[in-house]
């Protein structure tokens, strides 16, 4: 991957060399081009290949090490760590993944996490939400209803705000920090299939029902309805995975 491929032209113009190097190396690791256990090229080699200073390269290596992607070992060099040591929920790592082809296995992992956390958050929101919280959820829902299904960015943004507002309304700081995961899961899912837009439209009524259940302080109903919403996304992913597997099996 050439350093210029790491970002769009518009974004590249806004990035410093260190940020471009960090993004490039991270995407090579996340995509498997640099697989776990592999030793990265030397500083001299990478500096020459990417056309950046060794100082910028060292800063990038330190940043990626802090996110658990790599580790510098004496007399060995810089090595890619196993994926179980990566900070998968780091906002930068999620953003880098979004620039790569969608990974259905990772999206499924995000969706499974949502299946556990979001119903509980909706239940807590029904018990703890104040007027400001309800106003945020209502505003996001209104945006969802007024959006266009062919406007992917707008659709995802409104949907993300709806779920994030519920996480905040739970008054649980850990749940609230889960917001970046939701946005990534939604955007990656939309890139996988055009049916995501159809599912979005079909689930609008259920989103509204979740809002009403929270407004009425019905904790059990809020949990139940949020479970329905996330399960819909999980079933769609299973359908996509089956289709992909079938297509691969048919190939000679």
- How many distinct helices? 13
CATH C-level class of the largest domain: Mainly Alpha
- Structural class by SSE content: mainly alpha
How many structural domains are formed by the residues?
2
Order of helices and strands: HHHHEEHHHHHHHHH
The amount of helix comes to: 55-70%
Overview of this structure, please?
The chain is mainly alpha-helical and 252 residues long. The chain has two domains: 3-85, Winged helix-like DNA-binding domain superfamily/Winged helix DNA-binding domain (Arc Repressor Mutant, subunit A, Orthogonal Bundle); 101-250, GntR ligand-binding domain-like (Four Helix Bundle (Hemerythrin (Met), subunit A)), CATH 1.20.120.530. The chain is built from 13 helices and two strands. The chain has a two-stranded antiparallel sheet. Helix 2 (17-30) packs across helix 4 (54-66) and helix 7 (131-146) runs antiparallel to helix 8. The chain is elongated, with a radius of gyration of 21 Å. The two termini are 29 Å apart. Mean pLDDT is 86; it is low at 1-14.
